[in-house]
Amino acid sequence: SYALNLPADVIKTLSGKWNGRLGNTNLVFRFEKNEKGELLGFLDAPDSNSKDIRISEGSISEGKLILKIKVANIEYKGKLTKDSLDGEWMQGGQNIPLTMKKQ
Hints:
Blueprint: H1 8-14, E1 16-22, E2 25-33, E3 39-45, E4 50-55, E5 57-61, E6 64-69, E7 74-80, E8 84-91, E9 94-102
C-alpha cells in the first residue's frame, strides 16, 4: 500500500493539488483519500504526459515534510505551510530548490 502515514493536521493541509515549476517543467503534487480514508499522493508532470506517479513514502522530520518517489529515485523535502511547500527536489545527485503552491 502507498498510503501516506502522516499526522491528521498534515493530511488536512496537504489534501488537494499543489503546483510548481522545476526549471521549464510544470509539476503537480496531488493528495487524495481512497475509499478507506487513507491519504495517497501522486506526482504529475503534464509537460511530459506523466501522470499518477505514486508518492511511495511521506514523513515529517525536524519540521519538514519528506516525500519519496522510489520508482524515479526522487526525494522532496520542504517546509509545509497552509498554502505552500518550500523545499528541495533531490534527484540524480542534484538538489534543486522547488516551491509548490496549493491550488
